[in-house]
Amino acid sequence: MTKARLLRLSVVLVSIFMILLIIVYWDNVGTAHFYLHTSFSRPRSPGAIAAGEDWEALPDVDEFLAKLLSSSLKQNSSIPRKTEQLLIQGSNKPVVSNLEENVRGYDWSTHKDRNSLDQEKLQVERQRTLREFCANSSFTFPTKERSFDDIPNYELNHLIVDDRHGVIYCYVPKVACTNWKRVMIVLSESLLDQGVPYRNPLDIPREHVHNTSTHLTFNKFWRRYGKFSRHLMKIKLKKYTKFLFVRDPFVRLISAFRSKFELENEDFYRRFAIPMLKLYSNHTNLPTSVSEAFGAGLKVSFSDFIQYLLDPRTEKMAPFNEHWRQVYRLCHPCQIDYDFIGKLETLDEDAAYLLQLLKVDRLLRFPPSYRNRTASSWEDNWFAKIPLAWRQQLYKLYEADFVLFGYPKPENLLKD
């Protein structure tokens, strides 16, 4: 009986081990190529990271997976990487086909006169602010207290994974996310142009950038790894470099309104503009196409947009669209310990510093900013016709994003 039990146990263990080997080595995501060559301010010794000794307090399955992935890392360390190619200076500027990019254009100036920021101290301060308010029990907002395991799978769709370089990026729409997605495509080599991976981020067409099939995101793990998906997520969250970029919440709303309602966008017109015009501007028999509506002078006003955000019926119908959903709901900053917090207000400096830390600055440069970027100085004009009570309600709706990421409360907009 004892031998039979041992035999059955051995068969089970061997089966589990083979399944894990298949997951690690044969999955087309490339988990086996677990390249870790990033160094951040976390107090971890390189030896502990390489040996997998930094994964303390992991459950048994997590620990087993961690050791297995560590062993695969050691085995792959001898595989020569592709020769890094220096970025060709002064590469051809792309022909911009997207309406928004065509309207705004790119700012190709060198910004040599900008003051260099003490990036290391800046990151320490941003992370300290975030951690303090996440730990502050007197500061509350929805979903703050839940654990990572409590986050539904569909809410993890903004976490893009690059297994080749050990990077996780949480994208926030209207915060340079198009160009950061382009960077992630170049790094992960997830998209080919005539059989060759893209090398210049700006060569990647916008329609491919926002195609969900282009990126490996956390919400896709379930289909690939089944019940092991959360364990693998936790391991990658511990081992990979995690970053996001944020923006003044009110300015982000203005930017979202400009790109989705001031430009002709068929999808947003049908999904959002028609209901807004009916509910808040008392329009009926609206045109079915955005071009007809614009031709007739029927456009959503900024006031309509703010009413829509404040209307309790909005979230009862469906969660906020990602372009105006709060960052804390997109990226879960109190559940995920981000290594780098960038800001659009210091985009050029932050992007250059991050690429250096990731040790990929010889491979690519971050694309230039838009010339006509929505600025903080626009707030007073945009909110001038919005009633004070609405502004105060709107601040409460986005307060967590202001506080967690160190944006000052816009007192001038919240008082008479």
How does this model look, in words?
The structure is a single chain. This protein has 416 residues and is mainly α. It has a domain at 110-247 and 326-382 and 403-411. Helices cover 47% and strands 5% of the residues. The chain has 19 helices and 6 strands. The protein has helices at 2-26, 46-51, 60-76, 99-104, 119-135, 177-188, 206-209, 221-225, 229-239, 249-262, 266-280, 290-295, 302-310, 312-317, 327-331, 347-357, 379-383, 388-404, 411-414, and strands at 159-162, 167-170, 192-193, 196-197, 241-246, 340-343. The strands form 2 sheets. Strands 1-2-5-6 form a 4-stranded mixed sheet, sandwiched between helices. β3 and β4 form a beta hairpin. α1 (2-26) packs across α3, α3 crosses α9 (229-239) and α13 packs across α18 (388-404). The longest helix has 25 residues, at 2-26. The radius of gyration is 24 Å and the shape is globular. It is found in: Golgi apparatus membrane. Its main location: Golgi. GO terms for molecular function: sulfotransferase activity. Its EC number is 2.8.2.-. Keywords: Carbohydrate metabolism, Glycoprotein, Golgi apparatus, Membrane, Signal-anchor, Transferase, Transmembrane, Transmembrane helix.
